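Recall from the previous lesson that a structure prediction takes nothing but the amino acid sequence as input. Here we apply that procedure to Putative CheW protein from Polaromonas naphthalenivorans. The sequence below is the only information supplied.
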Amino acid sequence: MANRQALKELQTRLAERLQLAKMQGIAPSWLAVEAGSKKYLFPLAQSGEIFPWIGIQPVSYTQFWFLGVAGLRGGLYGVVDLAGFVSGQPSVSRNELARTESRLVSFNSALEVNCVLLIDKLAGLRKQDAFIDFSVRAPDAPAFFGNQYVDINGASWQEINLQLLAQQVHFLTIAA
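The prediction returns the following tokens.
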């Protein structure tokens, strides 16, 4: 009798947890980065490894935002300056001190893109509860922009859908 009651209580608790999970949904989480003077959010499911700044071999006759190629973990990756790509303007040169904070963020291997994004600074991980407000993508914003979020300090964070970015013709066309 006691076993039957314990089993019934367990089933009730499980049903309540499942219902709560359905109502709450899966909360998004991001890798927060800074590039240029902007703050960006990369969905964790679309982000790959994070590498320190390393020597990049320049490639001639490419867009200004395509910095060259780098050998990372035995693979050859194209290196894109995120700030330059998004703004459409060449980024300022980074000195040695700035390069110590710079990182190369790869795309998730499932996206099948041998590319890394140069960012100026990692800002950690963020969940949805770190933000107090958001606005949906403006109609004139790039297709790879997602929502824009505002944190408790009033800073704006632009979500970047890495999967959509990897499919953009402009992103894939590195020739100058």
